[in-house]
Design a protein that fits this description.
about 400 residues, 5 domains, six-stranded antiparallel sheet
Length: about 400
């Protein structure tokens, strides 16, 4: 141990005698130049100064510790001036812990703790003791970035049950068990609202709440057991519409099962039990001279039973104006020919009313189609200039 400079003793002099100076000598300042070797204890005002000493133990970078009063070092605890290593001799981060079992444990008491374990292939487990939750409290967002694209959730037994699989262009949710996937909502006690049922491969709502599309005016829901309600201001069917495996063969824009009294398109098809009715609204450009193919197709083997002309606004045309409604298909007869439903309106003004065969306007009743047939409305000689009308063609399906 060295003390600051001054004079009074030779650097090589050994002091062996005890000082008994008193009086004016007390409190005098002694300065030493060179080294001072002390054998025994060094006391200051009767109290020991300093501690044990000796040569550092272990190898370079090994952190010193008290080993029964002596310095010691261990290869399991090293510090290279920058990085601290536990269980590793060459730490490459600020703190590196190497072990084949749990590497870190944080404890609140003997029972409350969390551990971090890294196994082979870098499989990492963060676990909590007792029934402790693991809370991630982020001031910003939380990102789960898996290079494999998959996030697994398992039950307490460790078996994988729910998997989120995100690929380059498609994302999947996999439920790996013979059980339903249930959605629950609610404050103060959640309740089921819907489920994907594995047993029936179906999606099912748990209540009578509707499934809404785009807005609240269009929905599908089950108001009571075994009842399905389809609600929408307009319902369009693209393709074939079937009831009890029997096709309702009217083209999609004309199919209306909601209100037989409302004509919302140039033509509509209405299915009413056994009998089917093609409803055709004729107006606008269809009043020009020439044939106008309507948006209604009558099916093959349809047995035509009746046709009615409903003039709800008086028709106005030229002196020679005539109108007719025909099919492009044929009826079963020895000489197949198109069906001419009616030829009426010989000019002037046609009164408002319902017209059938008894009015003498030439409406056709009866016949069976031998092929699918569209309907054609024809105006001849002079165009119609005003008025409004619907045509109702009734038929049933033959074999």
């Amino acid at each position: 141990m060295g003390f600051g400079g001054g004079s009074g003793f030779s650097p090589s002099r050994t002091i062996v005698e005890a000082s008994t100076k008193t009086g004016n000598d007390v409190g005098q300042k002694h300065q030493f130049t060179g080294s001072v070797d002390i054998t025994g204890d060094l006391n200051l005002n009767g109290a020991p100064v300093g501690g044990g000493g000796g040569t550092p133990g272990g190898a370079t970078t090994q952190v010193q510790y008290n080993n029964a009063g002596s310095f010691a070092g261990s290869a399991n605890l090293v510090f290279d001036g920058t990085n601290l290593g536990i269980g590793v001799t060459d730490p490459d981060s600020a703190l590196e812990v190497l072990s084949t079992t749990t590497q870190q444990k944080w404890s609140y008491d003997a029972d409350s703790f969390a551990t971090l374990t890294v196994a082979d292939d870098s499989v990492t487990t963060l676990a909590s003791g007792e029934s402790g939750n693991i809370v991630i409290d982020a001031a910003g967002d939380i990102f789960l970035e898996a290079d494999g694209g998959q996030i697994y959730m398992g039950d307490p037994g460790g078996a994988t049950k729910l998997k989120f699989d995100v690929q380059a262009t498609t994302a999947y949710i996999d439920l790996n068990q013979d059980a339903p996937l249930i959605f629950r909502l609610g404050l103060g006690g959640v309740s089921e609202i819907a489920r994907f049922d594995q047993a029936t491969d179906s999606f099912r709502l748990a209540t009578d709440s509707p499934v809404q599309f785009r807005d609240t005016a269009t929905s599908i829901h089950s108001p009571s057991a075994n009842v399905l309600t389809l609600t929408g201001p307009t319902v369009d069917v693209a393709g074939t519409f079937s009831l009890n495996s029997a096709n309702v063969t009217s083209t999609a824009p004309e199919l209306n099962l909601l209100d037989a009294s409302v004509v919302t398109a140039p033509s509509e098809g209405i299915w009413t039990g056994v009998e089917r009715v093609a409803v055709i609204n004729i107006s606008g450009s269809q009043y020009d001279v020439g044939p106008h193919v309507l948006g209604v197709t009558l099916p093959d083997k349809a047995i035509l039973t009746n046709a009615t002309l409903d003039v709800f606004q008086g028709l106005v045309g030229g002196a020679g104006s005539t109108i007719s409604l025909t099919t492009t298909g044929n009826v079963h007869s020895s000489v197949p020919a198109p069906i001419d439903f009616f030829q009426s309106f010989g000019g002037g003004a046609q009164p408002i009313g319902i017209f059938g065969s008894e009015e003498g306007v030439g409406l056709y009743s009866g016949g069976k189609l031998n092929g699918a047939s569209t309907l054609t409305f024809t105006v001849a000689v002079d165009p119609l200039t005003a008025g409004g009308m619907n045509v109702y063609v009734h038929y049933i399906m033959g074999t």
